[in-house]
Amino acid sequence: MADPADRRRAMRIYRKLLDAYPDAHCALDHRNAFELLVATILSAQCTDVRVNKVTPALFKAYPTPQKMADAPVEKIEELIRTTGFFRNKAKNIKGAAIAIVDDFGGKVPDAMEDLLTLPGVARKTANVVLGDAFDKQEGVVVDTHVGRIAKRLGFTDADDKNAVQIERDLMDLFPRKHWTLLSHLLIWHGRAVCKARNPQGDGCPLGRTCCQQLGG
After folding, report:
1. Quick one: average pLDDT of 189-202?
2. How many CA atoms lie within 13 A of 159 on its CB side?
3. What is the pLDDT of residues 22-67, one digit of tens each?
4. Does the active-site annotation cover 143?
5. Is 94 labeled as catalytic in the residue annotation?
6. Virtual torsion, Cα 73, 77, 78, 84, nearest 10 deg
7. Quick one: pLDDT at residue 209?
8. For the chain, which residues make up each domain, given as ranges?
């Protein structure tokens, strides 16, 4: 259980991030839960910018779970080739679409336990879909930015790669209603200022609450 003082500090940082990035949101372009699910699967080991270049043609060709389920996997591969690991991603996207059609009446499920049954969907992807498509706060999305900055800010003592423990620590520190936006704020801060190799300390919106006050 987090110390009350740590929670107060965490919320001070949250408010500063919100002031700095009032427009923070999911960077993956999507119009519905299915598009967000597919885009999130594609985002593994790939930038959001690249995913957003690929998905318009993909969704134009296969706009629904049924059409994606019926698509030849080779056609999906061609459309997503530049995202990396395209064969495995195509297999998972088609498999997820088939499961959505066969098991969930053609609609992306809105429960964690159901999403985790879909091919290519682990907790991180499920959290993205639940938070941004269904406004359900079931957890905190932990990507490389979130893990790095949570560590730098003293929100967690876990190793940067221990996403499970980092998520638990963040969920303990912050009220549930903030979990989805918290991840977006940390991601935007990671991309704009608190970069992996060259954090821009000058002009950091966190000021004295910055990780530098914790010794780096």
Report:
1. 79
2. 2
3. 999 999 999 999 999 999 999 999 999 999 999 999 999 999 999 9
4. yes
5. no
6. 180
7. 59
8. 4-25+140-214, 33-133
| 20: exposed, middle or buried (Cβ count in 10 Å: 0-12, 13-18, 19+) | middle
Q: Are 39 and 28 in contact (CB under 8 A)?
A: yes
**What is the architecture, at CATH level 2, of domain 4-25+140-214?**
Orthogonal Bundle (1.10)
pLDDT higher than 90, residue 194: no
Q: How many CA atoms lie within 13 A of 83 on its CB side?
A: 27
What's the token pair of residue 82?
Answer: 């530049």
End-to-end CA distance of the chain: 25
Whose tokens are 């991030």? That residue is: 17
Token pair, residue 172, equals 């303990």
Catalytic residue among 16, 94, 124, 151: 124
CATH fold for domain 33-133: Endonuclease III; domain 1 (1.10.340)
Residue 176 and residue 66: Cα distance in Å, rounded?
34
**Pick the catalytic residue: 6, 48, 110, 143?**
143
For residue 61 the two structure tokens come to: 């060709």
The two structure tokens encoding residue 166: 């980092």
